[in-house]
Design goal:
The chain is built from twelve helices and six strands. With about 280 residues, it is an alpha/beta fold. Helix 4 runs antiparallel to helix 5 and helix 7 crosses helix 8. The longest helix has 17 residues. The mean pLDDT is about 95.
């Protein structure tokens, strides 16, 4: 297999999991190379995501590493053999790589959780709301790039649309619902869109109300993407220095706990819809 200049987040995740399995078995890259009849440089390339690995070799490595989790191995085999080009590839070279990585991870996810405090989660956004957000970015984006990002975000909504309909839960702070992005009409349409989507059986929207007390210790925006097995879950967080993909078991456990804590203190779906409906009337 040829080398890759820029592995995707999903390809890197496969590579990281293979390295973790090897290290858990107490074996060196040289040991793994001897098993496959290759040199240690090739193992390093596989474990950095710059070179792919066949399903046969992956299963040989997993067996040699004494991995007894058949569901994990099967999931890794799918990741190794899936070389399809998704819709997001049309944006490669046009948008930052994390945009494409998120789209790919969303496409392959089994469920998704969002927690947002200042903005409406991307999958719930209307076109006008997304355009208003991108138009106010600093440094300012050219008009054609704004439209490119809006189009990409609208296509991402297929993750919870008619084609996939994965279980989706969004925990949105009341502040995000009240902040007027793009003006009164845009905000009203955005709240209407949330109400519309929340009627779907696979979509749950809960509001974190202003009245909640002692909440500061569990405020953490996140996009949580479920893998085919929990070990392959991924958390995405946006920060001042870019997008970070979190995948260590310990950190994933922390974010699962954080999500459940926020969920527990949020309004139930019916009360959340009532609150959103009331805010719509105010606009």
């Amino acid at each position: 297999m040829g080398t890759r200049r820029e592995p995707t987040a999903r390809q890197l995740r496969l590579a990281v999991e293979l390295r973790r399995l090897r290290e858990a078995a107490g074996l060196s890259a040289r040991d793994a190379a001897a098993l496959l009849g290759v040199n240690s440089v090739q193992i390093s390339q596989i474990e950095s995501g710059t070179t792919g690995v066949s399903e046969q070799r992956l299963r040989r490595l997993a067996a040699h590493y004494a991995c007894t989790d058949s569901k994990l191995v099967d999931s890794l085999a799918v990741m190794a053999t899936d070389r399809g080009r998704g819709w997001w590839e049309e944006y490669r070279g046009l948008l930052p790589t994390p945009f494409l990585d998120l789209s790919e991870l969303e496409y392959h996810s089994t469920h998704r959780w969002d927690v947002d405090f200042l903005h409406i989660p991307g999958l719930l956004q209307t076109e006008d709301y997304a355009r208003a957000l991108f138009s106010r970015r600093i440094p300012e984006l050219p008009g054609d790039e704004v439209e490119l990002r809006v189009r990409h975000r609208m296509q991402r909504r297929s993750a919870i649309g008619d084609t996939q309909q994965i279980p989706y839960e969004a925990l949105v702070h009341e502040a995000a619902l009240r902040i007027r992005v793009g003006g009164r009409a845009t905000s009203r349409a955005q709240l209407g869109r949330i109400l519309e989507l929340s009627e779907a059986e696979h979509v749950t929207v809960r509001v974190i109300p202003f009245e909640l007390e002692e909440f500061a210790d569990i405020t953490a925006d996140m996009v949580y993407l479920g893998g085919t097995v929990p070990r392959l879950d991924t958390v995405l967080r946006d920060g001042p220095h870019g997008t970070v993909f979190v995948d260590s078991e310990a950190q994933l456990g922390v974010f699962r706990t954080l999500f459940r804590r926020v969920e527990a203190v949020s309004l139930d779906p019916e009360r959340s819809r009532d609150l959103i409906h009331g805010l719509t009337k105010e606009l």
